[in-house]
Design brief:
CATH architecture of the domain at 93-300 in chain B: Orthogonal Bundle
Largest sheet of chain B: none
Number of strands of chain B: 0
Strand content of chain A: 15-25%
Largest sheet of chain A: 6 strands, mixed
Distance between the termini of chain A: 51 Å
Radius of gyration of chain A: 25 Å
Shape of chain B: globular
Structural class of chain A: alpha/beta
Oligomer: heterodimer
InterPro entries (chain B): BPD_transp_1_N, MetI-like, MetI-like_sf
CATH architecture of the largest domain in chain A: 3-Layer(aba) Sandwich
CATH topology of the largest domain in chain A: Rossmann fold
Order of helices and strands of chain B: HHHHHHHHHHHHHHH
Membrane topology (chain B): Multi-pass membrane protein
CATH superfamily of the largest domain in chain A: P-loop containing nucleotide triphosphate hydrolases
Radius of gyration of chain B: 24 Å
Protein name (chain B): ABC transporter permease
Family (chain B): Belongs to the binding-protein-dependent transport system permease family.
Main location (chain B): membrane
Shape of chain A: globular
CATH class of the largest domain in chain A: Alpha Beta
CATH topology of the domain at 93-300 in chain B: MetI-like fold
Number of helices of chain A: 20
Largest interface: A-B, 31 and 21 residues
Structural class of chain B: mainly alpha
Strand content of chain B: under 5%
Number of strands of chain A: 20
Distance between the termini of chain B: 14 Å
Number of domains of chain A: 2
CATH superfamily of the domain at 93-300 in chain B: MetI-like
Strand order of the largest sheet of chain A: 6-7-8-3-9-10
Chain lengths: ~550, ~325
């Protein structure tokens, strides 16, 4: 048998789309992609959403998600073309020779079954191992992947372990049948940065120790640089560039790859605080109804007019809860909020229309924040009617001005949200909040659901608008690169407390507290060997203590 | 206390409360009907004096609330009163009749529930293909035809023409189990045809809903066969809605068999109720109403509890 484990030639994949109000039609989403993967090597597939990277990964298992179909080309696994083989052979391939690790282990584990049953299922069903042998192997893998209590964790149900642990269980599930190839589909994307680093290291070591070949799919070039031998850059179903990891990271040839490598080019000079803050949060303590512990403890922050305060933290740190308190959705147990020189009522229902107008919000999921049955013009026009009583030509002119400000233009006025891309939808949401002429906008993870290049565009737009409209942003995010790009001051939150607060230069420069240090050092950097350096550094530090 | 136990106790308490409510409603409705038991007994021979005398004798002249409390107290001690028409103890008659009805319902459930779930799984496995369409068409046809018509058609063809089973489903204590089963074969068949479609459609819909989820994709990517994916990974997560519909249909099998029992002259609760309604035997109607309510509430409570137990998050808290 040759050394080539996976050979893909001129792979073409199509899908049927159902555009609203039109006839369904077939489109091609991958246009003839070719690559080779040697046994025991890792190939990174990288690209933005819609690049076809997951589709290509699943094609190596002869699987099409939804209405996706492989329309042409060859996919050779272990010396046979799996697109021409029998149905029974494909079932043996899936879960036996090729296994899959998905982005969301939380959704990919059956909630009604114990973890162990699911981890060994493929190996037992494919008659690779007996149940007993498979369970022993699963426990070994649990230990190797650094899971706590590896002998018993399999007896738990998926909801009884954390997200990071479940992602490692998913890796164990994929490695348990001793496959030749594992498809990792964004396995760390849904995790916090401090968790991602451990899972990434566990995956890397597991790949090395088991000698399995892997396709590693991600949109994050810095992550893929840590684990793969070769990288293929994809865009809209075409190969942009294909080479060794070293060549792609250090010497990218194509313009698109260069843009990906140098993303986050925004340079933002930090502004000095003004004497009078637009928002001051004093001693806020809050808890949710039905819980017997506080989720925010004595939070104090200030935001100055025309500036940006970034609130950064991982999931569960309380950053979104803070936004809920400021907007009045969650009245605090203690503390008060001063906005534009007046005290805000803790309860949303008792706030004046002026309070509501001057404090706007933009959300992470632009799709669900807009009524799908209203046109862009109606969506942006609504606050104009509501707050300023604008009608007819005057309203229309203002809508067009706003559309120009967000760089979309008049032609978007009669479109529906479904006809817009993710970035365009978020722009419409920005325009809607600006229509109210607010003093301050709360931006809750507004770029998290977007591809890096699109997110960059949104951040640039927000900064430009800040100059024109003199609006302040309270910017909630988990992404430190975004924080660097946009903020004037920063509050780092951890378990409901502000652990570090000050101007951008103070917060991002040493001396650090432990948590901020951990957070900052966990952000993947775009150079080879970064992962090993960080892990070695941490081991040394913990040995030193 | 384990949160599951707490939830189960809550459901139990709620069920008992509901039963009291139902008993009050049944009592109140029979009170609201024109005429009372005394009029029913005397019938044509009623004179104002004889009515007043009989009412006093039966205690009907006392306030409704007092009579309700007495009646309820009797029920709690297992005393359902005596029938007006044949002066027999109602609890005795109901006991025998209910046994027969439950016997019929049990066998109908034993056939129809597994069959409905199996057909549901099959319909999902071959969704939008001919087996799915055939299953849907046949079950929808049988549910659309009134059960008495199906009953008479089956009696005509299977019992009269072919002669496999008796057209009358008479059972008594001296019969062996085999003889009894032979006797109830036709009513079981009719009941199965009536309840099948509802449960099958719900199974199909509930599983199809789960089939969209990521863990079903995971199962497919493990190389499991289509049927294994549905049976092992989709079905356990679709239990709650399926159980609800199954229990509703079980309740129907006990409470709603009146028509089928009459068609096949089966000595069950339905026959008993119909007989005494026509004779305006109010205490019997009341007793039957309460028994039916108890069965209905009991089965739905079981459905609730099973649905709670089916949720692994509640069964195994963190």
């Amino acid at each position: 048998m040759s050394d080539i484990l996976l050979k893909v030639r001129d792979l073409k994949i199509g899908a049927t789309v159902y555009p609203p109000g039109e006839k369904p039609r077939d489109i091609e989403i991958v246009h003839g992609v070719s690559f080779d993967l040697e046994r025991g090597k890792v190939l990174g597939l990288i690209g933005e959403s819609g690049a076809g990277k997951s589709t290509i990964g699943l094609a190596s298992m002869a699987y099409g998600r939804g209405g996706v179909e492989i329309t042409g080309g060859e996919v050779w696994v272990n010396g046979r073309d799996i697109l021409k083989t029998t149905h029974g052979d494909i079932r043996k391939l899936r879960g036996g020779e090729v296994t899959y690790v998905s982005q969301s282990a939380a959704a990919s584990f059956n909630p009604a079954k114990k973890i162990m049953d699911q981890v060994v299922e493929a190996a037992v069903e494919q008659k690779k191992f007996t149940r007993k042998v498979a369970e022993g192997r699963a426990r070994e893998l649990f230990a190797k992947l650094g899971l706590p209590d590896p002998d018993n964790i399999g007896d738990r149900y998926p909801h009884q372990v954390s997200g990071g642990q479940l992602q490692r269980c998913m890796t164990a599930l994929a490695l348990c049948p001793e496959p030749d190839l594992v498809v990792f589909d964004e396995p760390t994307t849904a995790l916090d940065v401090t968790t991602q680093i451990d899972v990434l290291m566990a995956i890397k070591e597991a790949i090395r120790d088991t000698g399995v070949g892997a396709l590693y799919i991600t949109h994050d070039l810095a992550v893929v640089a840590q684990v793969s031998d070769d990288i293929m850059v994809l865009k809209m179903g075409d190969t942009v560039e294909y080479g060794t990891t070293d060549q792609i990271i250090n010497n990218p040839q194509e313009e698109y790859t260069q843009a990906l490598v140098s993303v986050r080019s925004i340079d933002h000079e930090e502004k000095k605080p003004t004497p009078e803050p637009v928002l001051s949060v004093d001693g806020i303590t809050a808890r949710y109804k039905g819980l017997n512990f506080d989720v925010l403890h004595n939070v104090n922050v200030e935001l100055h007019p025309g500036q940006t305060l970034a609130v950064v933290g991982e999931s569960g740190s309380g950053k979104s809860t803070l936004a809920r308190v400021i907007t009045g959705l969650l009245p605090p147990r203690d503390g008060e909020i001063t906005f534009a020189g007046r005290k805000l009522s803790p309860d949303l229902k008792r706030r004046s229309r002026e309070d509501l107008r001057e404090l706007q919000m933009i959300y992470q999921m632009a799709d669900v924040a807009m009524n799908p049955r209203q046109t862009v013009g109606t969506i942006i026009g609504r606050p104009l009617e509501f707050y300023f009583n604008m009608r007819g030509a005057e309203k229309r002119k203002r809508i067009i001005d706003l559309l120009d400000e967000i760089e979309l233009g008049e032609k978007f006025m009669d479109r529906y949200p479904a006809e817009l891309s993710g970035g365009q939808k978020q722009r419409v949401c920005i325009a809607r909040s600006l229509a109210a002429k607010p003093k301050m906008i709360i931006c809750d993870e507004v770029t998290s659901a977007l591809d890096p290049l699109v997110a960059d565009g949104i951040l640039k737009l927000l900064l430009d608008l800040q100059k024109i409209e003199d609006v302040a942003y309270l910017f909630i995010t988990h992404d430190l690169a975004t924080v660097r790009a946009i903020s004037d001051s920063i509050a780092v939150m951890y378990q409901g407390r502000v652990v570090r607060y000050g101007s951008k230069s103070e917060v991002l420069n040493p001396p650090f507290d432990d948590y901020t240090d951990l957070l900052l050092s966990s952000v993947p950097e775009m150079h080879l060997g970064w992962l090993e350096e960080v892990v070695a550094h941490r081991k040394m530090e913990s040995a030193g203590n | 206390m384990h949160p599951i136990l707490k939830l189960v106790f809550q459901r139990l308490a709620l069920g008992i409360l509901l039963l009291f409510g139902a008993s009050a409603l049944i009592f109140g409705l029979t009170e609201a009907l024109p005429g009372d038991a005394a009029q029913a007994v005397l019938g044509q021979s009623a004179t104002p004096e004889s009515l007043a005398n009989l009412r006093e004798e039966m205690g009907l002249d006392r306030p409704a609330l007092t009579r309700y409390v007495e009646w309820l107290g009797g029920i709690l001690q297992g005393d359902l009163g005596t029938s007006l028409t044949n002066k027999l103890d109602i609890a005795d008659s109901v006991g025998k009749r209910l046994g027969n009805t439950l016997f019929l319902a049990f066998w109908a459930a034993l056939v129809s529930v597994p069959l409905a779930i199996f057909l549901g799984l099959l319909a999902v496995r071959y969704r939008n293909r001919w087996p799915d369409k055939l299953i849907s068409a046949v079950t929808l046809t049988t549910i659309s035809i009134p059960e008495f018509l199906i009953g008479y058609v089956l009696i005509y063809f299977i019992a009269v023409k072919i002669g496999w089973f008796s057209p009358l489903a008479m059972v008594n204590d001296s019969m062996s189990l085999g003889q009894k089963l032979n006797a109830i074969a036709l009513p079981v068949l009719v009941l199965t045809m009536v309840v099948l479609a509802h449960m099958m459609r719900m199974t199909r819909a509930a599983i199809l809903n789960v089939m969209q989820s990521a863990y079903v994709e995971t199962a497919e990517l493990k190389g499991l066969s289509n049927f294994m994916v549905i049976y092992r990974h989709a079905l356990p997560n679709a239990v709650a809605p399926i159980v609800n519909v199954v229990m509703l249909n079980l309740a129907y099998l006990v409470v709603g068999v009146v028509v089928v029992e009459v068609v096949f002259v089966y000595p069950g609760m339905g026959q008993y109720l119909v007989d005494h309604v026509t004779k305006r035997d109010v205490p019997v109607v009341l007793a039957c109403g309460v028994v039916f309510a108890a069965i209905y509430i009991g089965l739905n409570m079981i459905a609730d509890i099973v649905a709670i137990l089916a949720n692994p998050r509640l069964r195994h808290p963190k």
